[in-house]
Specification:
CATH architecture of the largest domain: 2-Layer Sandwich
Structural class: alpha/beta
Number of domains: 3
Strand content: 15-25%
Radius of gyration: 23 Å
């Protein structure tokens, strides 16, 4: 029995939580991007306010404020940087063929960067191939090096990166390093201090610094980018850590990175400058001297939760709607929003060969469970799903017909499409597409076809776990 002395404060606490739950439920309905997020948060906040309020304060926001994009008139220095890039690449501006014209027009209208001709793209398969090439590029830097990763660890790979940056700074090369504060939460101060002491500019991207959002952890800067002297850039799925060499608890690690030489390399600078400005309120003066590297057309698209219209879902869905023969996708997660689900299903229903490779292993339970709930729809449309067997597959690649491929940091899930800052490149070239095709065929050979009746055949509790996970998919 509760004593009279405790009854009043307990009743007051209960009332405060109930009122708070109603307040935050209304807020959730007003700010959530999807109906299921509104319903899930609203019900949880009213029924279980003691648990739901702290979770909402951490994961509830779906719009990111305080971030300025180039070309919007908010920050003159960013607008000037975008204009310099646009002028620099003007002689290389081109368009995709009519089949993909809507995708490149959307990207240009949303972010101001067109398809860029004159590039040479190279696939870098797994960390064993990618890291030596990236580190060698930094070692050859003459003017500047930009390094941005979601995760940087102070381990073998991380210390090798630091060594290359210290050597570059000693040669007089200007170096910038940007990492996500959540992704690289274990990075020791000593690692950063050593770089800063050598003259390297190092900054963490902190997404919860705005007033009233100190507990927010819902947003991530998931981009992976290296630019050297504006002549070569690297983008893809790899972060800086030993696990990306297959030395972590998940064992063998399958990933893909992309090297681009040519004028597209300077275009990547725009997203970095926006990120750096958010983190430091300064805009580095990076040269814009595009140099032809080959004959391939590249479309760069950087997306994030500060956009009123998401460029990633726009580009992906337009390309999927445009294909006539195949869409092959590799992603560690499959938690598609309704628009992407519809695009994939419609492609399969009109006879397109739609295949998705997912990992067999699990690194995050909720998105893994969520994926099963979409099996019935994919089965009905004729989409085929494969599970990559050895170790863990982390690559983010899409092959469209026989002439276009996308490589970047974008996963096939709500988080990448709505909550993360992401970066990718679409390469249009039949020769490059054949390389991607051969890579996919090797991955299919190491994969097993998934039984898409697995969800419906599962136990009641398995299906319930999958459905509940999918209900929170916009916040995973």
């Amino acid at each position: 029995m509760i004593s009279e002395g405790l009854a009043f404060p307990l009743g007051l606490v209960t009332l405060v939580f109930q009122i708070g739950g109603i307040y935050f439920a209304i807020k959730a309905v007003m700010i959530s991007r999807t109906p299921q997020a509104s319903i899930a948060w609203g019900l949880a906040l009213i029924i279980f306010p003691y648990l739901a309020i702290p979770l909402f304060l951490i994961f509830g926001e779906s719009r990111f404020s305080g971030y300025a994009m180039a070309g919007t008139g908010e920050v003159p220095q960013l607008d000037a940087a975008l204009k310099r890039v646009q002028e620099g690449i003007a002689g290389f501006q081109t368009t995709f063929p009519p089949k993909y014209r809507d995708a490149d027009q959307l990207a240009k209208n949303l972010r101001g960067l067109p398809v860029i001709a004159g590039n040479q793209a190279r696939l870098l398969i797994d960390g064993g191939q990618a890291f030596p090439v990236i580190f060698e590029a930094i070692a050859s830097a003459r003017e500047y090096a930009v390094v941005q990763f979601y995760i940087i660890h102070d381990d073998g790979v991380g210390r090798e990166l630091k060594k290359r940056l210290l050597a570059a700074a000693k040669r007089g090369v200007r170096c910038w390093v940007l990492y996500d504060k959540v992704g690289a939460k274990g990075l020791p101060d000593s690692y950063v201090d050593e770089l800063v002491l050598a003259g390297v500019h190092v900054q963490a991207f902190v997404t919860n610094r705005q007033f009233g959002r100190r507990f927010q952890m819902n947003f991530r800067n998931h981009r992976k980018l290296v630019i050297v002297d504006g002549r070569v850039a690297f983008v893809g799925g790899l972060n800086i850590g030993d696990e990306y060499m297959g030395l972590g608890p998940l064992g063998a690690w399958r990933d893909t990175h992309l090297q681009i030489e040519g004028p597209a390399a300077v275009a990547f600078q725009v997203s970095f400058l926006e990120d750096w400005y958010y983190a430091t309120r300064t805009v580095p003066d990076l040269p814009v001297v595009p140099v032809r590297g080959g004959n391939e057309d590249v479309l760069i698209f950087a997306s994030g939760p500060s956009e009123p219209w998401g460029i990633t879902p726009a580009v992906y869905c337009e390309i999927i709607h445009d294909v006539r023969e195949r869409i092959w996708i590799a992603s560690p997660y499959f938690v598609p929003d309704p628009m992407l689900r519809g695009a994939l299903a419609h492609a399969a229903l009109r006879g397109v060969d739609v295949r998705i490779i997912l990992p067999q292993g699990i690194d995050h339970l909720l998105p893994w469970l969520s994926s099963f709930s979409y099996y019935p729809q994919m089965l009905a449309a004729g989409v085929k799903i494969w599970r990559y067997q050895p170790g863990f597959m982390h690559q983010k690649v899409m092959l469209a017909d026989n002439d276009l491929a996308i490589v970047g940091s974008v996963n096939l899930d709500y988080r990448s499409f709505m909550l993360n800052f992401e970066l990718a490149a679409a390469v249009r070239d039949e020769g490059f597409a054949r390389e991607v095709e051969r890579m996919f065929e090797a991955d299919f050979a190491r994969s097993e076809p998934e039984d898409l009746t697995r969800f419906e055949k599962g136990s009641f509790f398995f299906r319930l776990k999958c459905r509940l996970s999918a209900l929170m998919s916009p916040e995973q």
